[in-house]
Amino acid sequence: MSLPLDGITVLALEQAVAAPLATRQLGDLGARVIKIERPGTGDFAREFDQTVRGLSSHFVWLNRNKESLVLDLKDPAERPVLEALLDRADVLVQNLAPGAADRLGLGAEAVRANRPGLITCAISGYGSTGPYRDRKAYDLLVQCEAGVVSLTGTPAEPAKAGIPVADIAAGMYAYSGVLTALYERERTGQGCGFEVSMLDALGEWVGFPYFYAGYGGSPPPRNGARHAAISPYGPYRTGDGATVFIGVQNEREWTALCERVLRRPELVRDPRFAGNAARVEHDAELTGLIEQALAGSPAEEVQRRLDEAGIANARMRDMAEFAEHPQLAAAQRWAEVGSPAGPLRTLLPPVRVPGRQPRLDPVPELGEHTTAIRAEFGFGDR
Question: What pTM, to 2 d.p., does this model score?
Answer without folding.
Answer: 0.89
